[in-house]
Design goal:
With 288 residues, the chain is mainly α. 58% of the residues lie in helices and 5% in strands. Helix 5 runs parallel beside helix 8.
Length: 288
Amino acid sequence: MLTSAIVWNADPVLFTLGPITVRWYGLMFAIGFLAGYEIVGRMFRHEGAPERWLPILLAWVVGATLIGSRLGHVFFYEWDYYSAHPAQILKIWEGGLASHGGTIGIILAVILYSIFTTKRSPLWTFDRLVIPIALVGGLIRLGNLMNSEIFGHATDLPWGFMFLRSGEWHALYEGQACHPTQIYEALCYFMLFGLLMWMYWKKNAEERPGLILGVFFIGIFLPRFLIEFIKNDQVAREATMTLNIGQQLSIPFILLGVGLVIYAMMRPKVHIDFPNKFADEKPVKSRR
């Protein structure tokens, strides 16, 4: 047994109060959405967007994240099982969320939100929304760490983790340390969050529509693509794949990100006035 390994035995449950159980994973989700709401609110106020747009956007994003992530896991990873047991799809509390599915869900939600609420190009919303999403991504990976799930192959590096609460670890790596790939991804996403905040608040990158979104796609999915090489397979059929499912799904987003950056840099800047207050909307006059 490696004496230099980090023995990880964290309880995924933060506390239980009667019938209520609060898990670290759910707490990370909640903190991310609350922080994201505040960050986007500051941006909307900075640019004079209507305050009522905020709760509407939050509802779209929360629903799209949960539904998209669940269906992404169902269709991308375990369709053979769920097609035979469709009732199990609803049991989201048993685990099984895919970030690529969540991304697709959010894309569709923002398009609909833009059509029905902002009446603006979806790029306007994307360039602001993806900044806190990078933060949420890092927090979710910390939730995965607290669950002792989605870790990597065995390693001799001094920061390797022994996940004592993981049945997968005991079955495959008993006595060996593994790459804490949850931490690798979380650090990448937190650094991306810092970069995007700097681009928005210090460089006015939002004046080039699509630039922040493009950097986000590259900064999220390129690290994901690379880290997948040392991450354990999520489903058995990935064992025979040169590139696993997560990598295959990441490639289109990386290419889209590169395309968006090129598109944004080739087009002239869009001038934005910054009143630093929410827009005063004219009340709708009732008809008689």
